[in-house]
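Quick one: structure tokens for this chain, please?
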Amino acid sequence: MLFDLFKKNYHSLNGKNGSNPQPFLNANLGIPKDLEDFLRQGKELEYDRYTCEAGEVRLRKLQELKAENIKISTKHVPRISEQDDPNKNKNGSYIIPAVSLVAECENYDPDFVLLWLPREQKYGALSGACVNELLVFPTATWSDIAGNPVKYINAQWKGDYSAAEDFNPWQKYPFE
């Protein structure tokens, strides 16, 4: 039943079933207050861009935040796919709604360099178009990320599991 409800919402959010896609309102995104305040004040992350794999990143404006569906395949991430993923030997991806927080990135495509997972109420990062490995920061608040952005941004490239952990999508998200 939960899957059917999610599938219905997923299709309506993407303009299927004859509807037009509508951007989420911030309230529907479950954006934490500290992030909302940070973006409302027009702040940017402060750090030495030369210590960051991504280089300089610029955040999206609050009104630009919207949920988009990302596709995650665990096939290319053995430490995940060798676990209990029931679809580990199938072609396809898990569909997960996420909010990309980065508008511009000096060294990479900015999409999902840092992200918010509304259903999980967690921050994370998506590494590259080839691998699509989703890491989450299970206990991080926006204040934590803003206080040490390089630690969180670099997690996807440096494999820093002191801040991040692999995200296992098969328990909650549809596989297509």
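Residues 136 and 143 are 16 Å apart (CA to CA).
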